[in-house]
Write a structure and sequence with these properties.
mainly alpha; 3 helices; transmembrane helix; transmembrane; membrane
Length: 129
């Protein structure tokens, strides 16, 4: 593991901030553009990358604070996008569980069930796609 002293400073803080913004924007785009096909594991992977965006944003924030520099907007925006992605994917998982196991269709993005022939009771993820 790399010690904190080797990743301190403004350069690393900016790197973490822009990486957070990139991961947050990409994970939010994936949440609405890539078909989940009713598979809860795919939603978990998207949420995982949203978590990485949050982590990078918080790493940037701590490094900016250490050099007594105001936190940059990419770090804040990346963290917010990561949180938004995780909240949306938590709802997606809940909506998919309700549709797959209980037959209750909640409002959801079309790409979350794209490719499923029978959205409702009896969905078999990976088979009905």
């Amino acid at each position: 593991m790399i010690p904190y002293e080797h990743t301190a400073g403004a350069g690393w803080a900016r790197f973490f901030a822009w990486t957070s913004l990139g991961l947050g924007a990409a994970s939010l785009a994936v949440a609405f553009l890539v078909p989940l096909a009713g598979e809860i594991g795919r939603a978990a992977v998207v949420a995982f990358f949203g978590g990485f965006a949050i982590w990078f944003g918080l790493m940037a924030r701590s490094r900016f604070r250490a050099i007594e520099h105001p936190v940059s907007w990419p770090a804040v925006l990346g963290t917010v996008l990561g949180i938004l992605t995780m909240v949306i994917m938590a709802y997606a998982m809940f909506a998919l569980v309700m549709a797959i196991y209980y037959g209750v269709l909640l409002p959801m993005a079309p790409n979350w069930i794209a490719g499923i022939s029978n959205p409702g009771l009896g969905i078999v993820p990976g088979v009905d796609v």
